[in-house]
Amino acid sequence: MALRTILTKEEPRLRKHSRPITEFGQKTSDLMDDLRDTLATQEGVGLAAPQVGILRRAVVVIETNVPEGEDEYMIELINPEIIESSGTQTGPEGCLSVPKEFGIVTRPDYVKVRAQDREGNFFEVEGTGLTARCFCHEIDHLEGVLFTDIAERMLDPEEYQGRGEEED
Ligand code: ZN
After folding, report:
1. Centroid of ligand 1 to alpha carbon of 9 (angstroms)
2. By CB count within 10 A, which of 34, 64, 134, 139 is most buried?
C-alpha cells in the first residue's frame, strides 16, 4: 500500500484532461489500491487519480447510501462515463484538493455510470443523492474541472462550520 499526496488547487495537473486507461495489469491495480488507501485516510467520499498527480481516468467513490447496519464501501471506476442522469439536487460541496472551502453546486440527483473494473470488464452502476453528486464531481476531475468552477456561490466560513464529511 502506498499513500499518495493529494494535490491542491494551484497545482496545474488538476486542470488537465486525463487519458483513458488501456492496460489492466499490475500498474492499474496498484493505482486503484493507492487511491483506496489514500481516500481511506481522508474525510472525503471520493478521489480521482489526477488529484494524486496521475493523469489517468480512474476514480474511487464511497457508496454511503447503504442500508442501516451495513458497511459503506468503495466503488472503483475506470474510464467512467455518465450514461443517464435525472433530477437535480442543490447543496454544499467540497473537495480534498480545495481544503476548507465549500460552495453550492447543482448536480443531478440520479446518475448511471458505465465504467471498467481493474480487470477491464465493463459494468454499470447507479448512484443517488450524495453518491450521484460524488460520481459527477470525480468525473469532472478527469476533465480538469473543479467544483469551484461551477459553484453558484461559495459559502462563508461561518456557513460551513462543522462540515467536512462532504469533501470529495
Ligand atoms: Zn474533488
Report:
1. 10
2. 134
